């Protein structure tokens, strides 16, 4: 018995020109970062408690509005703790590593230090998170066509000037890409109130 079925020839292999591979990799990295960011937002929305069907009455003398909270007290990373902080720092890390640094990282020098362990510097985490929150808002379609320009002018330039300053949060860290260094500078100790000298 002979095989009467016809087999289609194998398709020609598809080859992307070498010059386009970097663009393709960059586009893929940005897309992956956006997908992760959307996943974090969906996780955050899914983890918010459902509104209670019956609310407790406000304390005596308090206005009724003060008994209800509309959403989280703050979305700022320094106000978060535990698992919420871990989720937010993971999403921020994706944004920093896959979008911020490849586009705005610039060369490391004594006048522009950087630290690969930026997530261990509280000021850097706070500034980068604030920058990311503004980026999310101002690159959304609802921000209009001038949103990205506003983000660059009002947020990015100012944040970079402080983050990468010679006396900024990375002052004791890497100033040469060939010699990585990490050290968190000590901050002033809070004064002990009520103790006499």
Outline the structure in words:
By secondary structure, the protein is an all-alpha fold. 44% of the residues lie in helices and 0% in strands. It has helices at 18-47, 82-104, 122-138, 147-163. α1 (18-47) packs antiparallel against α2 (82-104). The longest helix is centred in the first third of the chain and has 30 residues, at 18-47. The chain is globular and about 85 Å long. It starts with 17 loop residues before the first helix and ends in a 34-residue tail after the last helix. Residues 50-69 have low confidence and may be disordered.
Features:
single chain; 197 residues; mainly alpha
What layout of secondary structure does this protein have?
Elements: H1 18-47, H2 82-104, H3 122-138, H4 147-163
Helix pairs in contact: 1-2, 2-3, 3-4
**Portion in helices:** 40-55%
Strand coverage percent: under 5%
**How does the major sheet shape up?**
none
Discrete helix count:
4
What is the typical, i.e. mean, pLDDT? 74
What radius of gyration results from the CA coordinates?
Answer: 25 Å
Low-pLDDT windows of residues:
50-69
The succession of helices and strands, N to C, reads HHHH
Oligomeric state of the chains in view: single chain
* Shape designation: globular
CA-to-CA gap between the ends? 105 Å
Helix/strand-derived class?
mainly alpha
- The overall strand count is 0
């Amino acid at each position: 018995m002979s095989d009467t079925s016809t087999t289609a020839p194998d398709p020609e292999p598809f080859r992307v020109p070498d010059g386009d591979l970097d663009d393709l990799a960059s586009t893929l990295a940005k897309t992956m970062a956006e997908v992760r960011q959307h996943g974090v937002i969906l996780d955050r929305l899914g983890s918010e408690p459902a509104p209670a069907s019956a609310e407790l009455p406000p304390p005596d003398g308090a206005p009724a509005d003060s008994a209800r909270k509309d959403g989280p007290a703050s979305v700022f990373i320094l106000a978060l703790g535990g698992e919420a902080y871990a989720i937010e720092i993971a999403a921020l890390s994706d944004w920093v590593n896959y979008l911020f640094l490849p586009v705005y990282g610039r060369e490391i020098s004594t006048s522009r230090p950087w630290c690969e362990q930026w997530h261990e510097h509280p000021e850097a985490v706070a500034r980068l998170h604030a920058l990311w929150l503004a980026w999310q808002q101002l690159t959304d379609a609802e921000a209009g066509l001038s949103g990205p320009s506003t983000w660059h002018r009002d947020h990015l330039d100012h944040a970079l000037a402080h983050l990468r300053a010679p006396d900024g949060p990375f002052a004791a860290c890497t100033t040469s890409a060939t010699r990585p260094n990490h050290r968190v500078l000590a901050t002033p100790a809070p004064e002990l109130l009520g103790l006499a000298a």
